[in-house]
Amino acid sequence: MAPQNSNVKHAIEALKWLVLCALVVWVALKFPQKDWELLVQQPKNWWVLLLALAMVLLANIISFWRWQGLLLALKVPISFFETVRLGFLGVAFNTVSAGSVGGDLFKAIAAANRSKDRKTEVITSVLVDRAIGLLGLVIVAAISTSLAANLSPQLTTIRNAAWILSATGLAGLLGIVGFGRSLPLELVQRIPWIGDKLHRIANACLIFQNRPQLALAMIAQSMTVHACLTASCWLISSALYSNSSTQPTLLEHFLAIPPALLAGTLPITPGGLGLQEVWIDLLFKQIPSVSSEFSGLIVATMYRAILLLIALIAGIVYLSGRSNAQPVDETP
């Protein structure tokens, strides 16, 4: 029985690697041929592109660190390596799932499966972490669009919407921090059959009650993540337009990239494929100071190629560390 079980295990692992490769090929084939041709023909500074890749990796590592902090606050013991491994699982599946949030579902399931007693808290932590991530993104978009002197009507609308969303999110978070403990959660617990489960979910969602330092730390980490991703796009522009005066400034990238990243989270296409590229190209065209010779689409395509490479790295990290991942006995 043991040899047979071992063969089955190896077969499953081989199948997972094949699925990973198939997903990478599938996403690569989704790129329009004309965009690939433009990307290939464009001169490049490969060292700067490598730096852009490192910046995206750094952004992901910071986001995993943020999630670990939330899990530890929920009294779910987890190592940083395991957080990174599970985080990379979400990154890998983000390339093929709807929007850029679908990978969170797979990450939540994998994280919950290694937990014996706190699966509800683990799954809820993924949702809370995503909400904080989106709040950090709209705050970055609100601040960056407010730094420009002249904005097009479209960018002005985006700035106003970003400030409204930021204020709403921060007000809700402040309400949880200050008044979360005064909510009558014991009434939820009295609901037949599902009361205990709903009570645990509510407690996990209200993890920031009386914890302003945790809330501020997670918002700062989230803003840093999106600042790194925006900086990576600026580095891509620098690599592709190193010998040209048409390269937009870092501030101009902050005007276009954060709103485009937000559009990429909409659950419409796998990993925001196509939608995010269109928004990056469109928003750069809304900035009067950006030269018409600059192609936001080429930059967006190279950024997508880097995300594809990150997804491949993510899959390798997750599968390579699988044998070392052991369930732990969580104690509330």
Fold blueprint:
Blueprint (H helix, E strand, L loop, with lengths): L1 H28 L3 H9 L4 H28 L6 H15 L8 H11 L5 H28 L6 H27 L5 H5 L5 H11 L6 H29 L9 H15 L10 H11 L10 H25 L12
Helix pairs in contact: 1-13, 2-13, 3-4, 3-6, 3-10, 4-5, 4-13, 5-6, 6-7, 6-9, 6-10, 6-11, 10-11, 10-13, 11-12, 12-13
Relevant terms:
single chain, 332 residues, mainly alpha, disordered C terminus
Overview of this protein structure:
With 332 residues, the protein is mostly helical. It has one domain (32-323). It has helices spanning 2-29, 33-41, 46-73, 80-94, 103-113, 119-146, 153-179, 185-189, 195-205, 212-240, 250-264, 275-285, 296-320. The longest helix is centred in the C-terminal third of the chain and has 29 residues, at 212-240. The protein is flat.
In brief:
The chain has about 325 residues and is mostly helical.
Number of strands: 0
Low-pLDDT segments, ≥5 res: 327-332
> Percent of residues in beta strands?
under 5%
Characterize the biggest β-sheet: none
Provide the domain count: 1
Return Rg in Å. Answer: 21 Å
Q: Quick check: average pLDDT?
A: 78
How do the SSEs run, as a string of H and E?
HHHHHHHHHHHHH
Cα separation of the termini: 38 Å
How helix-rich are the residues, as a percent range? over 70%
General form: flat
> Helix count?
13
Structural class: mainly alpha
